[in-house]
DUF4890 domain-containing protein
Amino acid sequence: MKKLVMALFLLVAIGATAQKHGKRFGKEMKADMTAEQLATLHTKKMTLTLDLTEGQQRQIMEINLAKAVEMKTKRAEIKAKKESGDWQKPTADERFEIENARLDRQIAHHQQMKEVLTEDQYKTWKKITLGKRMKGKKKMQEKGRRG
């Protein structure tokens, strides 16, 4: 009985430690990476999932790199504004413009991916991205944020 209790305690302790480490490890690790590193990792994950050819890998690497550079620069701008105290909550018109620009970027990204991927790969990619979006939306709703 003692061995069973100790084994159960050990499993719970390891599980709790792994979960804490996983949360901290993911976001902090990605924040410290360069745009090239992020693009490379994303491209390799897509290669494993979609079985991309060499040519597709090169094209998708370019797409991912451009997206990662844009993301990094936007985050740096927002962080600089917040640190300097210049950041203010956007007005309704500014929020509309931001959302409109985001949707335009998404449409362009989907068009680029459609040109590079085969029809089956594109369907799989779209299914995966939709699943990730819904998962993120669900997490934000659980935390009481928008969504």
In short: The chain has one domain: 34-84+95-147.
